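Progress note, sequence design subtask.
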C-alpha cells in the first residue's frame, strides 16, 4: 500500500517538475514574444517602414532631426506619434487561437513591417496588422532571431484607447514636412516680390536693418518718412510658419502640366533672405478654376478664371508643388502701398 502511495507521490512530483520546466520555458518565450517596446530611443538612428507592396519609408537621424527618404524633413507631430507608439506599446493579450488563423491571413496580405536600427544593428523588427474588433489595439508579432514569433498579440498603449496601425502609414506626402519657411519678423533681412506683368500689384523690395526699414517700389526708392513701420513689422510677422495645405503633382509624368501652368498662370516670384544670408525663393502660380473652387462667379455673374481661395506654390531644392491658401499665405502677396503711411504718395 505504501509503495503505491510513494509511486503516486513520485508521479505527481514528476508531473509538477515537468510543468515547472515547461512553465519556465513558456514564461521566457512569452517575455521575448511580448517585447514590443523600443528601449533607449535616443540611440535609434534609423527606422524603416515597409508595406506589402514594398513601398518604403526610411527615417534617418541627422544631428537632432529626422529626414525622410534621404531628402525631406518629417512632420514633427506625426513622427512624435510614431515614436510614442514604438516606445510605449505593450502586449495587451494574445490573439485567441480561434481567431488566430483569420488574423494571420489578414496580416499576410497587408501587414506593415517596421525595422528599428541602433547604428548598424537591427534592434527590433515588428509586423503590424489591422485593429482588433474593438479598435482598441493592433495585431502585431515580432521577428526574433530571424524567425517569426509563435504568437500574435493585441498591442496598444496603456491609457490610450485606439489602434496604432495608422501611425505607421507608408505615404511619403503625408510624412513630409509641409513647411515652406518659418522666420520671425526680426529674422527677415530682405523681401523681394515680383508680380507677373498681368498682376495688379507693383513689385517691391523691402529691407530690414535692425528695424530700420527701406523700401523700393518698381525700382524706385521710397522716402523713409513715408514708410509705416508698424505695418512693416506686422507684414514681416506673416513669414512665420508658412506651410502648404497639401502637395500636388508628385508624379514625374505630370512635369508637362507643371511647365504649362508656370508658363501660362505664373502669378509672382518671391525671394526671402534671412539675417544669416540664407535665401529662399518660391514661385506662386494661379490655380485654374475647378469644380472644387468655392467661388465660381464674380459680382457681375462672370466665371472666374482662377480659384479665389488657393494658389499653387513651387519651392525647395526639388521644386515641389504645393497648395497655399489666401487666408494664410495670401497675407504675404500684398500691394506695397499697404506698407506706406495713409495718403502717402510715391510719385
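Output:
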Amino acid at each position: 500500500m505504501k509503495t503505491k502511495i510513494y509511486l503516486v507521490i513520485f508521479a505527481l512530483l514528476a508531473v509538477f517538475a515537468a510543468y515547472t520546466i515547461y512553465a519556465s520555458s513558456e514564461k521566457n518565450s512569452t517575455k521575448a514574444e511580448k517585447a514590443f517596446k523600443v528601449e533607449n530611443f535616443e540611440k535609434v538612428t534609423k527606422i524603416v517602414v515597409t508595406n506589402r507592396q514594398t513601398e518604403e519609408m526610411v527615417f534617418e537621424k541627422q544631428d537632432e532631426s529626422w529626414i525622410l527618404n534621404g531628402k525631406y524633413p518629417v512632420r514633427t507631430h506625426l513622427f512624435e506619434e510614431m515614436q510614442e507608439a514604438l516606445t510605449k506599446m505593450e502586449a495587451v493579450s494574445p490573439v485567441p487561437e480561434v481567431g488566430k488563423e483569420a488574423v494571420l491571413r489578414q496580416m499576410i496580405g497587408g501587414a506593415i513591417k517596421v525595422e528599428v536600427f541602433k547604428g548598424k544593428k537591427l534592434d527590433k523588427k515588428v509586423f503590424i496588422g489591422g485593429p482588433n474588433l474593438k479598435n482598441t489595439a493592433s495585431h502585431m508579432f515580432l521577428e526574433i532571431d530571424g524567425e517569426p514569433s509563435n504568437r500574435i498579440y493585441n498591442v496598444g498603449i496603456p491609457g490610450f484607447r485606439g489602434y496604432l496601425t495608422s501611425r505607421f502609414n507608408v505615404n511619403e506626402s503625408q510624412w513630409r514636412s509641409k513647411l515652406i519657411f518659418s522666420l520671425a519678423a526680426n529674422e527677415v533681412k530682405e523681401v523681394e516680390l515680383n508680380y507677373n506683368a498681368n498682376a495688379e500689384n507693383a513689385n517691391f523690395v523691402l529691407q530690414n536693418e535692425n528695424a530700420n526699414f527701406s523700401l523700393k517700389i518698381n525700382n524706385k526708392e521710397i522716402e523713409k518718412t513715408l514708410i509705416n513701420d508698424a505695418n512693416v513689422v506686422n507684414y514681416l510677422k506673416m513669414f512665420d510658419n508658412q506651410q502648404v495645405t497639401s502637395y500636388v503633382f508628385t508624379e514625374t509624368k505630370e512635369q508637362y502640366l507643371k511647365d504649362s501652368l508656370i508658363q501660362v498662370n505664373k502669378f509672382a516670384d518671391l525671394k526671402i533672405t534671412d539675417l544669416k544670408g540664407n535665401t529662399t525663393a518660391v514661385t506662386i502660380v494661379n490655380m485654374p478654376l475647378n469644380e472644387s473652387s468655392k467661388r465660381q462667379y464674380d459680382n457681375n455673374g462672370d466665371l472666374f478664371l482662377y480659384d479665389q481661395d488657393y494658389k499653387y506654390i513651387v519651392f525647395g531644392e526639388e521644386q515641389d508643388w504645393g497648395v497655399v491658401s489666401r487666408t494664410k499665405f495670401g497675407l504675404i502677396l500684398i500691394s506695397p502701398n499697404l506698407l506706406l503711411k495713409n495718403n502717402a504718395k510715391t510719385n
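The longest strand covers residues 121-131. Work on this subtask will continue into the next period as scheduled.
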